[in-house]
Design a protein that fits this description.
Aspartate Aminotransferase, domain 1; 2 domains; 398 residues; single chain; alpha/beta; seven-stranded mixed beta sheet; Aspartate Aminotransferase, domain 2
């Protein structure tokens, strides 16, 4: 055995993909707009981004980032625990606390780090983390790093969570973690039901609103807001890299103890803080999200247009209406072929293969933005239908 032997499975998967563009390693040569890029010299419609409000090119966001870049430089060159806490970091934390009406907020350098940092900073040996089995890798990694015992419960099942919590000797040492919107299936969580279970059992609840922030709730604060249970969720975590079109993550809470993660969360203490340009851009994006509900309206109109078109063409799509619309293809070989053919026709989507899904249920994960025009969505649906018929995934009309 050598260090490289464990990489053999990855090499075998890449070889199994055959000739052509390599999934998970596609180079975007130029970004022309929030909805269009250049790949392999070809103008390509982006239907695989998490830029849900299209704010990456918003003039206010660019202006704020540019001003901070000129004023404070390209990076902080230190962690928040050393020289990396600037006034912008504190200002953004206060903006998130104010937006949620919470007492405390903390920002992280990446969204991945937010989950890892909060879970591992809160929990330790002797504690228990109970997480939805379809949780993001960062949630699993945070549980592992914490040293706590952790268990998965059935996806979106408050009843299974209740059963597992009932077996715990000290529920006050239990952290339950769910996501508002799951990035592979496009499912949304019954957050209110989970909050009720945690209240009954006296456990703590954390909701990752990474994909649901912006799209759900009157102010776009996510599924907890939409379901009216913000006051019953102990910790809300999110990311900057989706609706807010930046890089970083946040946690808000009414527990004053959140501020102590500044000292105890290793992923927070031992990494450089977010750059001034990123922080300023996210602050501007947060203002836009909370003041312009029309962006949310446009996003949902585009989601419904895409879902209706794909379903009418004969595709099997995810059951839940959300910004993520998975298209079920089947075997990995067919999914890879479909993905490559779409790319050749100027449509970019995400390919979902095992272990992220079952071997016979591979997906093409599409996602949509408020920035998409109706004609762009219609073009994507038309290309999907053309390729689907050519590959015998959907029937040819009689």
């Amino acid at each position: 055995m050598t260090l490289f032997d464990k990489l053999g499975l990855t090499a075998a998967r890449l070889e199994g993909a055959g000739e052509g563009a390599v999934p998970f390693d596609t180079v975007i040569e130029a970004v022309l707009s929030p909805t269009e890029v250049t790949i392999d010299g070809r103008r390509t419609l982006m239907c695989g981004s998490n830029n849900y409000f299209g704010l990456s090119f918003h003039p206010e966001v660019i202006a704020a980032s540019t001003a901070a870049l000129a004023r404070e430089g390209t990076g902080t060159t230190g962690s928040r625990a050393a020289n990396g806490t600037y006034s912008g970091h504190r200002r953004l934390e206060q903006a998130f606390a104010d937006a949620y009406g919470m007492r405390r907020a903390q920002i992280f350098t990446t969204g991945y780090q937010a989950n890892v940092g909060v879970i591992s900073g809160l929990c330790g040996p002797g504690d228990v983390v109970l997480l939805d089995i379809e949780s993001h890798a960062s949630i699993y990694d945070g549980a592992r790093l914490s040293g706590a015992n952790f268990f998965a419960f059935r996806h979106n099942s408050p009843d299974d969570l209740r059963r597992k919590l009932s077996r715990q000797l000290d529920p006050q040492r239990c952290l339950v973690v769910v996501e508002g919107l799951y990035s592979m299936s496009g499912d949304v969580a019954p957050v209110a039901a989970f909050a009720e279970v945690c209240r009954e059992c006296d456990a703590f609840l954390m909701v990752d609103e990474a994909h649901s922030f912006g799209a759900y709730g009157r102010r776009g604060l996510g599924r907890a807001e939409e379901q009216g249970v913000l006051d019953r969720v102990d910790f809300i975590v999110g990311t900057f890299s989706k609706t807010l079109a930046g890089i970083g993550g946040f946690c808000v809470s009414n527990h004053d103890e959140l501020k102590l993660l500044h000292f105890t969360s290793r992923p927070y203490v031992f990494t450089a803080s977010a750059s001034p340009a990123s922080v300023a851009g996210v602050e501007a994006a947060l203002r836009i999200v909370t003041r312009e509900p029309g962006l949310r309206d446009r996003l949902w109109a585009n989601i419904r247009r895409a879902r209706a078109g794909l379903a009418a063409a004969g595709f099997e799509i995810g059951a839940t209406e959300s910004p993520i619309v998975p298209v079920k293809i089947g075997a990995a070989e067919r999914a890879i072929q479909f993905w490559r053919t779409l790319l050749m026709h100027g449509i970019y989507v995400n390919l979902v293969l095992p272990p992220a899904t079952h071997p016979d249920n591979c997906l093409l994960r599409t996602s949509y933005s408020a920035a998409h025009r109706a004609d762009e969505i219609d073009r994507a649906v038309a290309v999907f239908a053309e390729v689907g018929r050519a590959l015998s995934i959907i029937p040819t009309p009689a």
